[in-house]
Amino acid sequence: MRIVLGVGGGIAAYKVASLLRLFTEAGHKVTVVPTEAATRFVGVATWEALSGNPVSNSVFDDVEKVNHVRLGHEADLIVVAPATADLLAKAATGQAGDLLTNTLLMAHGPVLFAPAMHTEMWRHAATQANVETLRSRGVTVLEPASGRLTGADSGPGRLPEPEAIFAAAMALAGATVEGEAKAQPATHASLAGRTITISAGGTREALDPVRFLGNRSSGKQGVALAAAALAAGATVRFLAAHMDVEPPAGVELVHVESALELREAALKAAADSDVVIMAAAVADFRPAEVSDTKIKKVDGEDAPVVRLIRNPDILHELVERRNAGGGHQLIVGFAAETGDAQGDVLEHAAAKLKRKGCDLLVVNQVGIGRVFGQDDNSVVILSGHGAEPQSSAGSKADVAAAVIDRVGAELTRVFPAV
Ligand code: CTP
Description:
- By secondary structure, this protein is α/β, with parallel strands linked by helices.
- It is built from 15 helices and 19 strands.
- It has an 8-stranded mixed beta sheet with strand order 12-11-8-13-16-17-18-19, with helices on both faces. Strands 2-1-3-4-5 form a 5-stranded parallel beta sheet, with helices on both faces. It has a two-stranded antiparallel sheet with strand order 6-7.
- The chain is elongated.
- The two termini are 38 Å apart.
């Protein structure tokens, strides 16, 4: 992918050197376009050495190559970090005083801004209006992280970590989710400062050292959820059971195998999470006995009978712990239903929402070759707080954006500001 990395004039420019490394190590061709002010913080030589490409910030260098037109046209993705208040204002009002602002006006692909500035500047009505304007034009503006700023002050305004910007950029270009350059549906929710635990994939329940009981979950929906949550500015803890796809970049990653391992990891991660999304397909049963050695067939003997026992219901346990602690935590379950003689998909799902006691239940209809491993999904989001059911269909990235939007809305409604 061809990426233009615009660097604004803020002290956080030094962190962008790490972001550049993440892009180049992932095999992308990066042209760095710093503003004049940015070069006071990190010099042109650093950007040239790290990107392996010449660096300029003037429209009057290499005029014959018409760089100010070419760069924006050719870029599959433009990332601006740190996006200063000044750069946001210039982009929102369409100014074209240097190579970066010209490039932004010529952009053909997705554009991502990762802001960094003092809290007052970020919260100022002028900056917020500029951010709104850019977002309304389809530009992704990440929420800044919270924490210690350059001076003695602290609050929202820190540049998100390079890994988080990288993950959001890849999600925006569709690289993580679809494996090809395709725009990620915009998430409108802001989850800055929130921590989300997401479980994904299918658990494997050992029978013996070589065999297990598993399921068809690919982990694709969980990866799409992580990408959408990162793009909304959240810190993501990702609990990966077995998956057919790579886990996302930019998350705190924990690998698990069985339902019991997932339970332990989920209870630990959830302890200080604002949101828990249980997208993993957890085996309800596990073999009662696990053989230490490979189970062998013996001629003349009957085939072994495998007795199963119940696994703990992790989602239910998470809800009970949350309720017991009186905690402000939003818990989202997934339901895979087929419908049967006792009821249709939605009837089963409504009963499950009640039984599990979670805040939202994302319901999809499954069957052989349906949903599991596919790139598209069609779900209904049920609320435990009385809101109308909401349908979402499309790619798993579309569904993830709808779920994360709903999580953002529900968080604000049920548990206003932490
Ligand atoms: N889940 C869980 N622990 C389990 C089983 C499921 O936490 N032991 C979670 C899943 O991650 C999902 C939700 O519960 O978020 C629904 O899972 P599903 O398997 O569809 O429901 P079940 O509880 O197994 O109900 P049923 O057997 O009626 O389908």
